[in-house]
Each structure stands twice: as structure tokens, then as C-alpha cells.
Amino acid sequence: MSGAASSEGRVHGHRFAEDDHRRNGPEHSHGLVDASIKRSRDGLLVVGASLAVLTATAVAQAAIYVATGSVALLADLIHNAGDALTAVPLGVAFLLRSDRAERNAGLGVVLAILGSAVVAGVIAIDRIIHPLAPDHLLALGIAGGVGVIGNAIAARVRLNGGQRLDSPALIADGNHARSDAIVSAGVVLSASVVAIGAPIADPIIGLLITALILRITVESWRTVRGHHHHDPHS
């Protein structure tokens, strides 16, 4: 027991001394601590970059939603805003360098996707019962285009980072954002069908977006649950 305790003490001592050794002498290449710290920093950079992209996307879409009142855009906006917030538990997991927290963050991603699907579906159904055709269709189409671009960038950042860091949570979030780019294309489609005189298609497309979000939920759940990430510290 005392041997295990002293071993643990050496590991923690090495963690705090590592930065001094890196500054004052040759860089260590043998310890798990260096790798853990580097993975933590890389993960935080990936999460921060994707958060910035999706936040900018959601803000731009929110401004256009106020002008258009499109339920298809609102469904996409809610999803993008919720998607951006999933960066918080992922960032905490990388900051703590905890594999268990990272897995839990992956489950949080799935729950966030599911929640956005429920909200978007309720709004779409309400709009079918109480029709309200959107206007400013050019702005609506632009908002959809913003969503496509923003999600595509966020997806690439997350997928590259997830594969590099062997993070199932980031990979799930990356696949999620990549699918969201297709969802945002539905907003562009909505603007088109309303422009040709079929406003009922707007909430219908909102329902289709809801269905696609539910599909993404299932896919993300399978990714998080089916990826066996072995970590001796988990």
C-alpha cells in the first residue's frame, strides 16, 4: 500500500515540476504527464475554435430570424445555439484531463441534440396550426447559407481534432455539425419554396429538420457508446 501511495505521489510531483523542467532543461519525452497536458491544450483549442465559429453563426442567424420570422430558420438557430453550448462540458473535460468527464460530455452532446429536436418540433407544429409566412426571403436564404458555412467549418475543426486526439465526444460533435450543414441547407430550400408561393412548406421543412436532428441524435449516441477509448486513468 505504501509503495502505491509513494508511486502516486511521484506522479503528482512530476506533474507540478514538469513545466520547470521544460523551461530549464531538455524537454521530457517519456512521461504521460506531458502527453496529457498537450492533449488538454489541443482539445481546448479545438473546442474554443468551434465555439467561436458556431456562436458567430447563431448570432448572425438570430439577427436575420428577427427580420424574417421563419420557423425553418428558428429550428436551425435553436440547434446551432445549443450546439455551441456543448463546447462547455467538452472544454471542462479537456481542462480536467479526465477521460470519464469526456465520455460524459459526449453524452451531454447527445442530450443537447435531442433537446433541440424537441423544441424545433414543437415550434414547427405550432406554426402549422397558426400559419405565419416568413418574409425577407433573400435574407432568409442568406441565413441558411451562413448556417451551412459555419457548421461545415465547425465540423472540420471538430472532426480533425477528434481524430487527432482520439476523442469520441469530439468525433460525435463533428459528425453532428457536418449533418447540421445539410440541415441549414433546408433553410435555403424553405426560402425558395415560400418564394414560389408555397408558405405551408416552411413549417413542413421545419418538421423535416426536426426528423433529421433526431436521426443525428441516434447516430451521435452510437458513436459515443460504440467507441471504446482505453485510458488507464479512467
Number of strands: 0
CATH topology of the largest domain: Alpha-lytic protease prodomain-like
* Level-2 CATH architecture of the largest domain: Up-down Bundle
Total DSSP helices: 8
Largest sheet: none
Low-confidence parts, pLDDT < 50 over ≥5 residues? 4-32, 229-234
The domain tally reads 2
Q: Structural class per helix/strand content? A: mainly alpha
Order of helices and strands: HHHHHHHH
Question: What does the model show?
Answer:
The chain has 2 domains: 1-30; 37-226, Alpha-lytic protease prodomain-like. Helix content is 85%, strand content 0%. It has helices at 2-24, 32-68, 71-85, 87-96, 99-129, 137-165, 168-195, 201-226. The relative contact order is 0.14.
What's the gist of this structure?
This protein is 85% helix and 0% strand.
List the helices and strands and how they pair.
Layout: H1 2-24, H2 32-68, H3 71-85, H4 87-96, H5 99-129, H6 137-165, H7 168-195, H8 201-226
Helix pairs in contact: 2-3, 2-4, 2-6, 3-5, 3-6, 3-7, 3-8, 4-5, 5-7, 5-8, 6-7, 7-8
Summary keywords:
234 residues, mainly alpha, Alpha-lytic protease prodomain-like, elongated
